[in-house]
Amino acid sequence: MTYRPDEIDRRILYYLGMNARDTSAPMIAEEVDVTPATVRNRINRLEEHGIIRGYHADIDYENSNGKVTTQFTCTAPVSKRSALANEALSTPGVIHVRELLAGQENLVITAVGEDTTDINRIAQQLSAAGVTIEREDIVLDETFQPYHEFAPEEDRAPSAVTDFQTVVGGGEVVEFTVSETADIAGLTLKAANQEGLLPDEILVVGIERDGTHITPNGDTQIKPGDLVSVFSPETLPEQLVNAFDSEPRPANEQM
Question: Which domain of life does the protein's organism represent (predicted)?
Answer without folding.
Answer: Archaea
